[in-house]
Amino acid sequence: MKKALITGIGGQDGSYLAEFLFKKGYQVYGMLRRSSTFNCQNIEHLFNIKESNRVHLLYGDMTDVDSLLRIIKEVKPDEIYNLAAQSDVRVSFDIPFYTAQSDAIGVLNLLEAVKNLNIGCKIYQASTSELFSGDKREAPQNEKTSFNPKSPYGVAKLYGFEIAKVYRESYKMFVVNGIFFNHESPRRGENFVTRKISVGLNEIKSGKKEKMFLGNLDSKRDWGYAPEYMEAAWKMLQQKTPQDFVIATGETHSVREFIEEACKVLDIDITWKGKGLNEKGIDKKTGKTIVEIDPQYFRPNEVSYLCGDSRKARKILNWKPKTSFKDLVKIMVEADLRREKRHNICC
Ligand code: NAP
Ligand code: G4F
What we know:
Elements: E1 3-7, H1 12-23, E2 27-32, E3 55-59, H2 65-75, E4 79-82, H3 89-94, H4 96-117, E5 122-128, H5 152-171, E6 175-180, E7 183-184, H6 193-205, E8 212-214, E9 220-221, E10 224-225, H7 226-237, E11 245-247, E12 253-254, H8 255-265, E13 270-273, E14 280-283, E15 289-293, H9 311-317, H10 325-346
Parallel strand pairs: 1-2, 1-4, 2-3, 4-5, 5-6, 6-11, 7-10, 8-15
Antiparallel strand pairs: 9-12, 13-14, 14-15
Helix pairs in contact: 1-7, 2-4, 4-5, 6-8, 6-10, 8-10
Bound molecules: NADP nicotinamide-adenine-dinucleotide phosphate and ligand G4F.
């Protein structure tokens, strides 16, 4: 039975990947970092099934090379999926040192641990479309587009990308970078804009709050459905030769469009009034303001336009996205609607 180690197993992607590998028959090991609350909602269900002895959790941290050495020595994985990261772009401007420690040096820690233990496992490195500048003239972005990150997060991830390549080329290690564009789901952290909108509009609809505050509504992202992206990560490690891939839908939509689509799912008729910081989203039926702009959600520097070209993955991995933008919004908003209803029944 193949053994896979997932760092960041409790996050959005880690939880979907664990499910995917579990179904493929892998013995799954997940690295968690210690927190004061047992932060495992996304993976709890994996421990309630018959074969739950195939999922193991181990404590460790990307910034602590000793913990990585201990875990890898103990598990001896065939595949490592390095998903652990400080993944919030805006927050990376507040904690740039920590972001560099976990997202850049953390990757080096992992590569060194695998090299020194000489266990010859394959490694997937979670890279990102935040490596690109977001300049519309360079879109759609693919594996040949130049990198020009705009945030401490993007720079740390660029180090992770390059050091992975260096270890692949210098030590003949099987290391691949997945340049993944934004991918979302009902398990997305509520700090990210899609989930913030999905949760926020549901709370407005149920009367729990009056309005929500957002930043740049004109920013454009290539949003896909997270579980499909985890299959691509697995496929990358099943190739004969290690190489990097862009994974994306090839469609781009603004934050404003995401809000409008989410409003449709909840039967809210939204209209926009005003400009810039004074722009407001108004519910036509009630006349109430439901969206306002708060400058705290703008970034000091922004990647404004992301649209990925994943032709290489479509050809070599035989991978393509299945869920449309409209369906993705529906999946997320309806999941939060069900959650909101359950909550209202309980309280
Ligand atoms: P996520 O939900 O934020 O999950 C990240 C996980 O990493 C969390 O479980 C977190 O643990 C853990 N973690 C953070 N710092 C750590 C550290 N120092 N040591 C050990 N674990 C640590 O992110 P995601 O959306 O699943 O993304 C997975 C990976 O893909 C990340 O590397 C992200 O940067 C990258 N990526 C994501 C996207 C996307 O659109 N989702 C696109 C491109 C690349 P806590 O719960 O304790 O914080
Ligand atoms: O949802 P976001 O915070 O995601 P962002 O910055 O694109 O990063 C995500 O995707 C990356 C891949 O490109 C990953 F590498 C990264 O780990 C993470 O998963 O913001 C999306 C857009 C931005 O342009 C932001 O300025 O939404 C805009 N936005 C507008 N108002 C907002 C808000 N973002 C957040 N988080 N909160 C707002 O209120």
